[in-house]
Design goal:
The protein is mainly beta. Helix content is 2%, strand content 45%. The strands form four sheets. Strands 8-14-13-10-11 form a five-stranded mixed sheet, with no helix packed on it. A three-stranded antiparallel sheet has the order 4-1-6, with no helix packed on it. A three-stranded antiparallel sheet has the order 3-2-5, with no helix packed on it. The radius of gyration is 25 Å and the shape is rod-shaped.
Length: 204
C-alpha cells in the first residue's frame, strides 16, 4: 500500500454546539471512522489516516454518530441533528479517491527462461504486460532472491500511457549473470509485488 498523507475531515453546523462526554464519529464509505474530540463551536475536525484495505472511488461521509455517553447540544440544550443534509456530504463537496490496492504483478514474456547472449550483446529488451497506465520498473536483483532488498535500485523503467499494458524495457548487461525483477506502480503510488525475470547471462 502507498503511504497516503493524513488529512482533516471537517463537520460544520448551522449554530454553535458543544460536544462533551465522548466523541463525534464520522463514518466513511471506505470503512474508516474519523473521530472528533470534544469541542465547542460551529465546526470541528478529525484526522483521517488511511489504513490498509480502505478504498473508495469517491470518498463519502455515510453517517455521524456519538460514542456512548457523548452529547452534542446547542446553548439551549437541544440535541444536534446528526443527519447529514442532502448535498452536504463529503462526496458532494470534494472529489477524493482512496486507493490502497496494489496492481497485480507484471507478466514477463521475454525472456521466457534463463537466457545466454554473446559477449557482443550489451543490452536486452525485457518485455511483458502490466496494469494499464502503470509505471513499470526494472530493478537490479543482486542476490537473485526475487524480492527488492535494501540497496537494490531501479535500472530502467517505462510509463505506460493511453490504456496501454505492454512494456518493452531495455537494460544494460554486465558480463556474467544479470538478475532483475519487475514491478508496476499505479497512479496512487501502490506498487505491485515483484516479478522475477529469468537470469540473462552475457558470455565473457
Amino acid at each position: 500500500m502507498a503511504s497516503a498523507p493524513p488529512f482533516n475531515v471537517t463537520v460544520n453546523f448551522n449554530e454553535s454546539v458543544t460536544l462533551t462526554g465522548g466523541s463525534l464519529q464520522v463514518n466513511l464509505n471506505s470503512g474508516a471512522t474519523v473521530t472528533i474530540a470534544p469541542f465547542s463551536g460551529v465546526s470541528a475536525s478529525g484526522v483521517y489516516v488511511v489504513g490498509a484495505g480502505q478504498n473508495a472511488s469517491d470518498l463519502d461521509s455515510v453517517s455521524l454518530t456519538l460514542t456512548a455517553g457523548a452529547t452534542l447540544r446547542d446553548a439551549a440544550e437541544n440535541n444536534a441533528v446528526l443527519t447529514i443534509p442532502t448535498g452536504q456530504s463529503l462526496a458532494d463537496l470534494r472529489d477524493i479517491v482512496i486507493d490502497t490496492t496494489p496492481p497485480a504483478s507484471p507478466t514477463v514474456t521475454n525472456p521466457v527462461g534463463a537466457t545466454t547472449v554473446p559477449s557482443t550483446t550489451v543490452t536486452f529488451a525485457i518485455q511483458g504486460s502490466a496494469e494499464a497506465n502503470s509505471l513499470v520498473e526494472v530493478w537490479n536483483d543482486a542476490d537473485n532472491d526475487g524480492v527488492i532488498d535494501t540497496g537494490e535500485t531501479v535500472v530502467a523503467s517505462q510509463q505506460l500511457t493511453g490504456g496501454g499494458t505492454s512494456f518493452n524495457i531495455s537494460v544494460n548487461l554486465a558480463t556474467g549473470d544479470n538478475n532483475f525483477v519487475v514491478t508496476a506502480t499505479d497512479a496512487a503510488s501502490n506498487r505491485s509485488p515483484p516479478t522475477d525475470v529469468p537470469t540473462i547471462t552475457r558470455s565473457p
